[in-house]
Amino acid sequence: MDITIKDVALKANVSIATVSRVLNQSKPVSKAVRERVLEVVEELGFNPNPVARTLIMKESRLIGVLIPGIENMFISIFVQAIEEELFKHNYTTLLCNTNRDLDVELHYLKLLKEKYVDGVVLLTSAPKPKQIQFFENHAVPVVFASHTDQEGRFSCINIDDYQATYDATRYLIQLGHRKIAFFGGPRVYVQIVRRLAGYKQALADYGIEYDEKLIYEQDYDIESGYESGMKLFRQEDRPTAICCVSDMVAIGAIRAADDSGLRVPEDISVMGFDDIPIAKAYRPGITTVRQPVYELGVQAAQMLLKQIREKEDYVPEVKLLPHEIIVRGSCMTVKG
Amino acid sequence: MDITIKDVALKANVSIATVSRVLNQSKPVSKAVRERVLEVVEELGFNPNPVARTLIMKESRLIGVLIPGIENMFISIFVQAIEEELFKHNYTTLLCNTNRDLDVELHYLKLLKEKYVDGVVLLTSAPKPKQIQFFENHAVPVVFASHTDQEGRFSCINIDDYQATYDATRYLIQLGHRKIAFFGGPRVYVQIVRRLAGYKQALADYGIEYDEKLIYEQDYDIESGYESGMKLFRQEDRPTAICCVSDMVAIGAIRAADDSGLRVPEDISVMGFDDIPIAKAYRPGITTVRQPVYELGVQAAQMLLKQIREKEDYVPEVKLLPHEIIVRGSCMTVKG
DNA sequence: CTGTTAGCGCTTTCAT
DNA sequence: ATGAAAGCGCTAACAG
Question: According to the model, what pLDDT value does residue B152 have?
């Protein structure tokens, strides 16, 4: 593979150390020499071999991004945002799909460390003990996304899951709904736990009794929403509203309503979460809790970059971005 | 960073060369020694440093995946498929979003080469001259996706764009439609050119005149479909059907119809492309041309792996996977 | 300011 | 079958 630092040194009549110095500006070099070197570099089209560099410097300009899957547009956009932001700073994204498998996650973490990635963005449930241990042992910069670390050990980027779901539920209540189902993900996710807490609190604040039977624990995708919906609509005395954990789930639920002969929003209100592009295009438009998805990704990248820059001086930060209820057509006042 | 081959050699009382040999099985080692080394490796939890290895071997177990963006679910699923297939074979995915910018593309290609990636999957329009030159100069394994190379220089994985669009158009014609709009992407993409050719041929075969005014060139996303739709529906003497370049475009078009007081499919039939999950869940279900998206990704990965394995012996192959018209609710026979 | 030299952690001749 | 030693391409003391 072509042309090395040696070739440059030779042609410029200097030592390789000098070439290295002008390229990295690590030590002063006389103007004359610097210019000659730069010229030769240009002329030969020399590019330092990043792998050799990594071996010494223990840094790779690679960032690992661990995600649970890409079936949800939220994640696609999030990843795209990270990739674009990192690209600006000359970092490249190593995409690792863990499929929610802890072993795969750990495997990837180990692999990333060996490749000397400069940092990792983790989009998984809560940091599990093994992960925590990993990051404490190896001191690789990390930011957790869609998670809020209470103990201040790790940097996090997220919205306020609790408040967002509280707001969503309250919105439904203010529309007159008293019986509101919750289509959530598995409760092993702290995200779900916190959202559920927001939901419960809203109910409590408005004197509505919490009913465990209205809680459906599935996943974040269309299929889950559909299945939960079909199950729910078979029950008698069904709710007048559903609070969903994602827009995809909402879409599944709406479809299930359709297949059950129910109209949205006339017979049942459905509230989404995320506000991915499809939420706006859907008919009816999906009333939803907007997350600033792209911004979340950008900030995840920036926090990581900051962490890399500041090293030991860096103090973990938890950043909560604002959410917003976007009113469209999938929710309405409950019929008298 | 921890434990190296030296530590193992020391503890096992052998030379580092021997350790290397048992780990790579590159030369015979006596059973006794081998076992002892393996024991120490186990005991110390030694992992060869892949970066040092890359520096010598010029291979990284990294695969670059270049995509134009992730706003379309087709790409997300495609990328996920590649990632999962590569993971099985111990390769990791470097995700590069080019945003359709040729310079970014070239930049990434250069970067990937420097990182000694073992291969790259390219999901972009046609191979442009500079890319072709790149791959010819550097001999890095590559497979083009969603593109069919006529000249047999590069491996490709795709469906038959021409035939697929021909079939879609014919389906619409057989439903009685004579005036069919085409919502496509920019014609700089060979993919679009070939699809357009299929569309035209179908019209011709059924004695329908081709009308340039019915062709809309935008992008693959919802917004594009919506804009094209709004424009189209303002015209008088509007078509009775639309043939779209993606399901997202179809969704945008349906929404536009809705906003224009048109019903789908009663007033206008809309045909999608891809069959992403949302197509099934949408109301009405979107009649569409199914691409085996996931399978496309898996095969892209496999072709690349084969290419890496066989090196010079490898003969570029063009693989076309079958498509299928999925009939749902967004298209119907033309009225009266 | 500049050159010489010793590695980073590994693979691979070349001897033995 | 095994070890010593020479690099892969680069950075960073260490001398001058």
Answer: 82
Instruction: State the alpha helices, DSSP H only, in A148-292.
Output: 161-174, 190-205, 222-234, 247-259, 277-281
Do B267 and B284 contact (CB within 8 A), yes or no?
A: no
- pLDDT surpasses 90 at B288: yes
Encode pLDDT of B208-235 as tens digits: 999 999 999 999 999 999 999 999 999 8
My answer on whether B13 and B127 are in the same domain is no
- Tally the domains of chain B: 3
The answer to the question of residue A131 being in a domain is: yes
Q: Which residue's entry shows tokens 């049942």?
A: A268
Instruction: Dump strand ranges (E) for A34-163.
Output: 62-67, 92-97, 119-122, 142-145, 155-159
B31 and B108 inside one domain: no
pTM: 0.94
Same domain assignment for residues B29 and B177 = no
Contacts with B, A 10-29, CB within 8 Å: none
**Distance between CA atoms of A32 and A35, rounded to whole angstroms?**
5
Instruction: Give the CA-to-C1' distance from A253 to C7 in angstroms.
Output: 62
The number of residues in chain B equals 336
**Does residue A95 reach within 7 angstroms of strand C, measured from its CB?**
no
Note whether B180 and B127 are same-domain residues: no
- Domain shared by A27 and A111, yes or no: no
> A313 in a domain, yes or no?
yes
Which residues of chain A lie closer than 8 angstroms to B99, CB-CB? 84
* CATH code of the domain in which A39 resides: 1.10.260.40
Q: Which domain holds residue B81?
A: 62-159+293-321
Is residue A22 scored above 60 in pLDDT? yes
Contact yes or no for A242/A268 (Cβ under 8 A): yes
